[in-house]
Amino acid sequence: MIMSRSYLVLIAVVTLTLSTIAIAGDVSGTVKFEGTPPKGKPIDMSKEPGCKAQYSTPPTTQAVVANANGTLDNVIVYVSQGLPGGKTYTPPSQPVVYDQKGCMYHPHVVALQTDQTLQVVNSDQNSHNIHPLAKINHEWNKSQPAGAPPFNEKFDKQEIAIPVKCNIHPWMRGYIAVLDNPYYSVSDDKGKFTIKGLPPGKYTLTAWQESWGTQTQDVTVSGSGPQTVDFTFKAKPIY
Q1: Is the pLDDT of residue 41 over 90?
Q2: Which of the residues 92, 151, 221, 225 has the least number of beta carbons within 10 Å of its own beta carbon?
C-alpha cells in the first residue's frame, strides 16, 4: 500500500506527540518537619468587628503552618535548575484568585506564572489595601473598598517570593510567588505537592518556606513512572 507524504507526516506527528506524553513525568512528595514547630500567635481583630465575628476562636499568624500529620502547609516546591535556558512558557489563561476574607489572605501563599493574571478579591465588608513589596517586579499598592469589584494584576519576572501586606490591617501577611515556568507546586494541608508533566531530564528542586528558608534536592525524570521527592525542615524558633 502506498501512503501519501502528508499521511506519513501526520503519523509521525501523532507518534511523536504520544511519545512525549508518555515520557513526561510527575514529581510528587511530602514536606515534613522535625522537632516542635512554633505556634502561631493569636491575632487581635477587635478593631475590625466584622472580621472578628467570622472566627469562633482568634485566628493565628501563619509564618509556619504545621499540619497534624507532621507536615508543612504553604511550602513552594519548584524546579530551580535543569530547564532549557531561554525557553519561554505560555502562561495559563485561568487567573489565580487572591482573596481577602476575614481580614486574612486566602491562600496565605499563592503561586502563579509570569504574565498570568492575579485576580484580587475583597470578600469582606470593610476596605483593604493590598501592597506586594516586590523587589524584582514592579511594586504596587491598591485600595479595595467593601463591595468593590475584583481587579487584575500581572508580574513579568520570576520572584520567589513577594511579601504582601495590608496597609490598613498590620496583621495581614501573605506571599506571592512568581515563576517563569509551569513546574511548581504549593504543599497542601497534608504537606503534599505534585509537579506535573516534567520532560525527561535531571533537575534540581527547591522547597521554599517563608520562615525556615530553602532546601534543594536533585531528581531524574526518565519516563519510567512518577518520581518521589520528600523534604524535611528542622523546626526552629521564629524571631
Answers
A1: yes
A2: 225
Q: 23-83+198-239: which CATH topology?
A: Immunoglobulin-like (2.60.40)
Could you tell me which of 208, 99, 227 has the C-alpha nearest to residue 159? 208
For residue 14, pLDDT beyond 50? no
Q: Which of 128, 65, 67 is nearest to 101 (CA)?
A: 128
Helix (H) or strand (E) holding 6: helix 5-23
| Of the candidates 54, 49, 65, the residue with the CA atom closest to the CA atom of residue 235 | 65
CATH architecture under which domain 84-182 falls:
Sandwich (2.60)
Exposure of 115 by Cβ count < 10 A (0-12 exposed, 13-18 middle, 19+ buried)?
middle
What tens digit of pLDDT does each residue of 202-225 get?
Answer: 999 999 999 999 999 999 998 767
Q: What is the mean pLDDT of residues 76-97?
A: 94
Q: What residue spans define the domains of the chain?
A: 23-83+198-239, 84-182
Q: Please report the pLDDT score of residue 10 as a whole number.
A: 39
The whole-angstrom separation of Cα 203 and Cα 81 is 6
